[in-house]
Design goal:
heterodimer; A: mainly beta; seven-stranded mixed β-sheet; 52% strand; globular; B: mainly beta; 11 strands
């Protein structure tokens, strides 16, 4: 099956620093990538949808300047958490879809802890 | 925003029993998908059912869809300890084909 690689798996950073998370589709070209955020024992909250070569579409309440998403190629999307604060600590998961396939392939997630 | 609500939130059953999880959603969909998540990991796709389908099977999984009630159910038969995980329904919205919204999830525990 299709493989999506996400790294780092976990990151600890100081408040005020920026953190970049990468999401790569290893054996297929992802027309669409999604970024989700998940709090402990809760569901996945969609943050944004990104299509290769175009600006990401952010969900209501998600700060565009805070969570920068770049989908520069059909195999790579990045999420940068800028000026991270403790409230940004969370589990971030990316997923990718290759049209016309309707199902999502997920990365293994990144646990971000901001001190 | 969250599209789906699932119940129960948590379910604990004996190994060998069947597990049923339900999902309700709010808006029209293209399809509904079920995913599984082991603790602290990414999600794995289990099964997809389209809006014009009513039932689908895959191994020990059986999914039903009732678009008139905007609800779906996932049945896992003959449960195993390895089925312990969180299960999420996800809806592919008709109004926005590239958006997939997840339900609140059911935490399933299988007792040996």
């Amino acid at each position: 099956g299709a493989v999506v690689s996400q790294h780092p798996s976990w990151v600890i950073c100081k408040s005020g620093t920026s953190v970049k998370i990468e999401c790569r589709s290893l054996d297929f070209q992802a027309t669409t990538m999604f970024w989700y955020r998940q709090f402990p024992k809760q569901s996945l909250m969609l943050m944004a949808t990104s299509n290769e070569g175009s600006k990401a579409t952010y969900e209501q309440g998600v700060e565009k300047d805070k969570f920068l998403i770049n989908h520069a190629s059909l195999t790579l999307s990045t999420l940068t958490v800028t000026s991270a604060h403790p409230e940004d600590s969370s589990f971030y998961i990316c997923s990718a879809r290759q049209e016309p396939n309707e199902k999502l392939f997920f990365g293994s997630g990144t646990q971000l802890s901001v001190l | 925003s969250q599209q789906g609500e699932e119940d129960p939130q948590a379910l604990s059953i004996q190994e060998g029993e069947n597990a049923t999880m339900n999902c309700s959603y709010k808006t029209s969909i293209n399809n509904l998908q079920w995913y599984r998540q082991n603790s602290g990991r990414g999600l794995v796709h289990l099964i997809l059912i389209r809006s014009n389908e009513r039932e689908k099977h895959s191994g020990r999984l059986r999914v039903t869809l009732d678009t008139s009630k905007k609800s779906s159910s996932l049945l896992i038969t003959a449960s195993r300890a390895a089925d312990t995980a969180s299960y999420f329904c996800a809806t592919d919205l008709r109004s926005s084909a590239s958006k997939i919204i997840f339900g609140s999830g059911t935490r399933l525990s299988i007792r040996p």
